[in-house]
Design a protein that fits this description.
Elements: E1 7-11, E2 24-31, E3 34-39, H1 48-51, H2 57-63, E4 69-71, E5 75-85, E6 97-100, H3 103-111, E7 119-129, H4 132-139, E8 142-146, H5 150-153, H6 156-166
Length: 181
């Protein structure tokens, strides 16, 4: 199977896992050892599983800025990264995305009134072991799409719906579990 690096994974409408239901994931790495990506459409404020039980004052303050912070996945929630559009000359949109952990930019996102354009601050990531994601795709759990400006331009609340509709799917017509026929 071709590499999924720089592609978007869109969860199928019947996905019930609380981390991945209605998720859009930007795949950062994909090789023989496994796959790593970040969810780009879930502000941390939507993730009740994260907000419950936070006792650290610093994290509580950060969560108050939750409209600017995204839940990237259930792995390493204490690590931040920034997904941003670069000014690269490439025609391939996916090559115009870069990851960063620039502390100055993180502070700018958190503490300035306006988030820098085409930038998302994400805590955590999603990862799959060797061949695990390919098996989930074969089972019918995920759709694959080229990366596009929509990850920055669409509202996080609407992004998954917009992308699922590009496949002609009616989200209300799904019942049961994933699979392919």
């Amino acid at each position: 199977m071709k590499s999924l690096k720089n592609k978007l994974l869109i969860s199928m409408p019947n996905m019930v896992d609380p981390y991945f239901a209605k998720s859009v994931i930007f795949i950062c790495e994909d090789d023989v050892n496994g796959t790593m990506g970040v969810i780009v459409n879930k502000p941390i404020s939507q993730m009740k599983i994260i907000n419950a039980g936070i006792k650290n004052k610093i994290f509580e303050d950060i969560i108050n800025e939750s409209e600017k912070i995204f839940f990237g996945g259930p792995v390493r929630l204490n690590e931040a990264c920034i997904v941003q559009k670069t000014t690269g000359k490439s025609d391939d949109f996916s090559e115009k995305i870069e990851l960063s952990n620039d502390l100055d930019l993180i502070q700018e996102i958190l503490f300035n009134e306006k988030t820098p354009k085409d930038t998302k601050l994400i805590f955590g990531h999603a990862s799959w072991g060797k061949s695990q994601l390919q098996e989930e795709i074969k089972r019918g759990d995920w759709l694959i799409q080229e990366c596009s400006n929509s990850i920055f331009q669409s509202s996080p609340k609407n992004l998954w719906n917009e992308l699922i509709h590009t496949f002609g799917l009616d989200i209300y017509g799904f019942i049961g579990t994933g699979g392919v026929s």
